[in-house]
Known about the structure:
The structure is a homotrimer. Chain A is of the alpha+beta class. Chain A has three helices and five strands, in the order βαββαββα. Chain A has a four-stranded antiparallel β-sheet with strand order 2-3-1-4. The longest helix of chain A has 13 residues, at 14-26. The two termini of chain A are 20 Å apart. β2 of chain A pairs antiparallel with β2 of chain C.
Amino acid sequence: xxxxxxxxxxxxxxxxxxxxxxxxxxxxxxxxxxxxxxxxxxxxxxxxxxxxxxxxxxxxxxxxxxxxxxxxxxxxxxxxxxxxxxxxxxxxxxxxxxxxxxxxx
Amino acid sequence: xxxxxxxxxxxxxxxxxxxxxxxxxxxxxxxxxxxxxxxxxxxxxxxxxxxxxxxxxxxxxxxxxxxxxxxxxxxxxxxxxxxxxxxxxxxxxxxxxxxxxxxxx
Amino acid sequence: xxxxxxxxxxxxxxxxxxxxxxxxxxxxxxxxxxxxxxxxxxxxxxxxxxxxxxxxxxxxxxxxxxxxxxxxxxxxxxxxxxxxxxxxxxxxxxxxxxxxxxxxx
Lengths: 105, 105, 105
């Protein structure tokens, strides 16, 4: 089991992304959030092809905090069913991980 | 084994990215495709450093569909040898995964 | 254990990203580096919310090279404690992976 995980989500507006990022940081559920601008999302909606401009977030956290992070993200996210995907971080800079631990302590 | 996976690829032009996204959605091989604009790619080509502007795609699918997705992507991709990388999604929003299942049924 | 891995890092300036990309390629520690422009990073620093514009790098390599890549990245990175996260690539285009092997041989 990885100790650290990357959580991906998307939202419609930069303001939403900023509120999500700040809330997760203030609640010590994430150590760092990258906000990627202006992505295009293609998906099927009620049988038709849909296309939106969205913002993608890369959220870095401890695996031990992920479940509470997911629940909190579902509560604060403007979408009814937000994309939330968790990816294991299997290795990296141990000093960076120690910084994550310190920030989320 | 993860039930859902994230497939990453790159291509040279937005038009190509849009064709790839639409084709995979129409063939029910992907539930959602994010298209990230204007990345720079550095790589070695025939012994020399090469640098291109590319588009990066984040493709979300069921693990059960990934092999057919890879084969289809290789057929429709403009590159001879496209970058196709699969990453396991280990956790996330169960309602979002149910939506993926519904869309890809 | 995955044979190929994706290494994520961030830095402050495009010039730094280009130096990192070229150095890793020249040292045969990475086959390809994607440089993503203008992301916003939110994080806590000394108890306060901080927000910076950064560049995100997606570095593709062989798992066998990852540890040396991490050590080299820590040496050449402008940050004291750079974010370096490693993600397993579990599947993909075998011809692309063969290209990685060829380039990193």
